[in-house]
Each structure stands twice: as structure tokens, then as C-alpha cells.
């Protein structure tokens, strides 16, 4: 048996404090694997605990299979929960730990056959007579899963069940959990703050921020059509590049999005999505470029080999941008190149956990020397790249100077581009880039997506 779970405008606060869950609405279909994703403290566990009946619901409604369930006892909900600290009884063997809930449920019955069947499913038959102290972390986690599964509940709630395990084991158990819950066909709500885990596990992912649901969709939808800048920044590795831009839509000229001293010229005729940017004319926006949206122009190799550059390296829909190599991050199968394009990065405060710096952050600007001048200075005899200078710079240097310094430990460069390890890049090189405007994201001042069209929003659930 499996259950539908609906939350309608559910709110919760602790001890008359602020709402930690704020008008949360979501419909979870029977058998679905739904992942609740968000940064620490955003209310994920609170939502889970309200579904389980371990926390009261202040406002709004919880429906289980369409029935009002706000005041049902936890035991009436037929829900099994797996916690991060999968507490097993230390004085009981795995067999007794798994059988314990069965014995509580039906005191006279022999839990033996169910325990054995569950252990077989999890591949832990040979661990049944050991105590938790004699098991590894991964084995303990499997016993805890067994305890939840053996009861044949109609809902699984899992609260970061893998976060205590090392990365390798986590990946393996992650795959096992996905397979197991699908085989059992039981509705599962899985909490994590790890976006990669969410993307690999969920039928749908619900992104929470500060107690407020931001977006619900399949992993593909939340990645391809993030509703706002928070979702865009939270999902995907490497993190989406977010740059401050300014839309210019003169009546008699091409529409551009300026990024500091350079700009992206939107090709004519404007696509439907780009036409929507007209209303942003003269306004500051946030430009989002995922790593697949930017590539190093093939002309780069030619310039260094001394040969003539190809006539046109850009594919339809690609426009040029120039970057100065700030830092090269070797990852084995690929290389992440951090470029300085002279634009200002946009920051999503909750997501700015300091990243370890490979080397100390560099000063972004020398007194009175613009990035363009630095590009030219360092480029020396190299042919000047396709850098375009605005007549009137959108962001005067004084304004840039007022910008808060990037957080300590942040890697330098405002644009991160993925490339193959065979391209040799060194700090200070000037590199022609191509931006694929089909992958351009633009968010307005409030962080809401304006391009691609918000009408292309996936189903928001709830
Ligand atoms: N019993 C409690 N009393 C008071 N405040 C609480 C209580 N439980 C949680 N909170 C607060 O409610 C907010 C949401 O907490 P919750 O545990 O739901 O977050 P979370 O998203 O699960 O975070 P994490 O990823 O760190 O587990 C936090 O600000 C937390 O401090
Ligand atoms: Mg939690």
C-alpha cells in the first residue's frame, strides 16, 4: 500500500518565533520519490516531522490519501522514518533491531519471516546476529533501513539518511535506496541539502529556502528552467555563473546585455525569449550562464599556434566575450577555468559558504586601471580580442569600488568555464570566448527569471 500526501498552506513556528515553514503547499502522488532540498535551517526536517506527526501544524492542512490528517497520531499514519543518526538499540542484534517495530505492532506474531525477507532484500542476512557495535557505518545504515522497510509502511520519510557516511558508500547506498523504494513502490519523501543527491534520486525535487517553497519539478526541469536565481545557483555543478548586467534596448539599435565593460549583443531577429527582455530596458539584471553556455573560441588555438584564425568560429546564436585567465582548476577529465571578464558577480548570500582558495584571492582592480587596460597590458603583442567597450559604461568604476569585497576564500574570476585538459591555459592569458545565447538566463532585480520566459515554468505542484 502506498499513500498520497498533500500539504496545503502549511505554516509552522517554534515558541512564537518567526515562521520556519511558511505557507508550504505540495501534492505528492502515491509511489513518488520526492526530494526536499535546501540549505541548512530552511525547514526541511520540520516539514518531514509535520508529515510524520512529530510536530504540530500551526496553520494549513495535511491530507493523507485525501483525508484531513493534522491530528492523527503518528502511529495512525503508517509512516516509517529514517533519520540521519540512525539510532539502533546497541544491546539488540540486527535481527532484533529490525524485528522490534514488528513486535510492537503485532505482539503475538513471529517477526522472523519478515525480518529474514527484509534482510535478504538488503543483502545483510549474514549480519543478523551481530550487534550495532560490530557493524560498519554502512551496514548499520542498512539495518536502520531494514527496520523501516520490514513494517511495510505506506510512506517512507528519510531525513539525510546518508550524511554520516563517506562519499563512496553514500553513492552506493544512494543507488540502492532509489532501487529499493521503486521496487517497493512506497511514497518516499527524502530530505537532503546535497543537490547532486537530490538530482540523482528524485522523481521530483522541491527546493526550499527560508521555509518558503521555491520550485517543484523533475530534476531536469529545475535545472533547465529554474524559477529564480536561488534555484539556479543551488542546483548544478559547477555553480552557474551569475553576473550583474544591464539591458539596453535602443529603438534604433540592437538589444544588448552589458556585463561591466563588455556586452552580449542579442542576435536579430530577437527570439521570443529575448523580446521579453525589452521590459527590462535600463534596468540592472542578473545574467546566468551555466558552464555549457560558454566555450573557448576555436580561434584561441590558432592565435597561439601563430596561424590564421578561422573566418568565423561562432555557431549561430553564439556571441563573443573576452576573458582573462585568473585561475585554472585541474580536475583530471576536465579543467575549470576562472576568467575575469570585467563584470561584477551577483551573490546569493545563503550560498556563499567560503570555498577553499587554491591560492589567495587577487585584488580585482588596481587603482585607476580598468580590466580592459589590464587585458591589453598583459596581452602584449597578441591581437586584440573581440572586446567591445560601451560608450557610457553601465557600471562606473566608483560604483564597482563600492561593491562589497568577494567573501574570503572565494576563488578569483567572475566566470567559470569548463574545458578539456588539452587546452593549455596560463594565468594572465587573454582568451576569446563564445556565449551560446540559447542558454542565456536573465533574472530581474528580485531574482525572478525573466528569460527564458517564466511562462515556460514547469508544473509547480501544490
Ligand atoms: N525544536 C525547535 N525549537 C526551536 N527552533 C527550532 C526547533 N527545531 C528547529 N528549529 C529551527 O527551525 C528552523 C528550521 O529547522 P529544520 O530543522 O527544519 O531545518 P533543516 O532544513 O532540516 O536544516 P538542516 O539541514 O540543518 O537539518 C531552524 O532555524 C531551526 O533552528
Ligand atoms: Mg534537518
TrEMBL record:
This is Sugar ABC transporter ATP-binding protein. One of its GO terms (molecular function) is ABC-type transporter activity. InterPro entries: AAA+_ATPase, ABC_transporter-like_ATP-bd, ABC_transporter-like_CS, ABC_transpr_MalK/UgpC-like, Mo/tungstate-bd_C_term_dom, P-loop_NTPase, Transp-assoc_OB_typ2. PROSITE patterns: ABC_TRANSPORTER_1, ABC_TRANSPORTER_2. Pfam families: ABC_tran, TOBE_2. Residues 5-235 form the ABC transporter domain. Gene3D superfamilies: 2.40.50.100, P-loop containing nucleotide triphosphate hydrolases. Residues 395-415 are annotated as: Disordered. It comes from Streptomyces lucensis JCM 4490. Keywords: ATP-binding, Nucleotide-binding, Transport. GO terms for cellular component: ATP-binding cassette (ABC) transporter complex, substrate-binding subunit-containing.
